[in-house]
Design goal:
By secondary structure, the chain is of the alpha/beta class. The chain has one domain: Alpha-Beta Barrel (TIM Barrel), CATH 3.20.20. About 40% of the residues lie in helices and about 30% in strands. The protein contains 10 helices and 12 strands. The protein has an 8-stranded parallel barrel, surrounded by 8 helices. Helix 1 packs parallel to helix 3 and helix 8 runs parallel beside helix 10. It is globular.
Length: about 240
């Protein structure tokens, strides 16, 4: 399993939100690049980044994009990016600055666009499925839909998606543990997709539980910044196949 430490950017600042609510934004680090370099020193090879301004506003933040580009250029880490990727031009610009994995959230609800994106970028496209009470939320988790997360996951798999990042919004930023039941249901429903767990990870036992489920990846954010999860220990455990 791959451990992806997270850097969420809001106005160029490294922040964490609780349950996706923007009014809870809490600065967690002074500098995005130095944070990424710290993650690399712990053994991380890939990181998860989110343009929170882009997620909410529907267009990439120039300030946040500069931070992403700097991290790619100076850290050598593989970066996956979500937030504000709504058009093919958005994808092209993110890919041009070196983003390796392009995360479609709100835009993926347009299955025709998702198919076109996959036709162009293949398995570099990952779909972010963010759920409130089991139903997909969009636009930075502000808008709720009537799409049940399992049904939507089956649709994006049929459209050709090979990877899904799943977040139970009620767990995100709470350190209350990932929603193992929803993840197990998702994994069974779309077994051909690589599933990455996001939201709620607290301690090493959570990493062990996710690894035992055979998931592809786990995104860790607040647990690292709060010091409840030793990133190096998590990476070592995951790299050893859960042993």
């Amino acid at each position: 399993m791959i451990i992806l430490p997270a850097i969420d950017l809001l106005g160029g600042r490294c922040v964490r939100l609780v349950k996706g609510e923007y009014n809870t934004a809490d600065k967690v680090a002074e500098d995005a690049l130095q944070t990424a370099l710290y993650f690399k020193s712990c053994g991380a090879e890939q990181i998860h980044m989110v343009d929170l301004d882009g997620a909410k506003d529907g267009a990439a933040s120039a300030l946040n994009r500069r931070a992403v580009s700097e991290i790619i250029e100076k850290s050598g880490l593989v970066v996956e990016l979500g937030g504000g990727l709504r058009t093919m031009r958005d994808l092209d610009e993110a890919a041009a600055c070196g983003v390796q994995r392009l995360i479609l959230g709100s835009a993926a609800t347009d299955l025709s666009f998702l198919s076109r994106a996959i036709d162009k970028y293949g398995d570099r496209i990952t779909v972010g499925i963010d759920a409130k009470n089991g139903y997909v939320a969009t636009a930075g988790w502000i808008n709720s839909t009537d799409l049940y997360y399992i049904d939507f996951a089956k649709s994006v798999m049929s459209a050709g998606a090979s990877g899904i990042i799943f977040t139970d919004i009620s767990r995100d930023g709470t350190l209350s543990g990932p929603n193992l039941n929803m993840l197990a249901e998702l994994s069974a429903a779309v077994s051909s997709c690589n599933i990455t767990a996001s939201g709620g990870i607290h301690v090493l036992d959570d990493i062990k539980a996710l690894s035992n489920m055979g998931l592809w990846g786990a995104i860790c954010g607040k647990s690292i910044y709060a010091g409840t999860l030793d990133l190096k220990a998590a990476i070592d455990h995951a790299a050893n196949g859960g042993a």
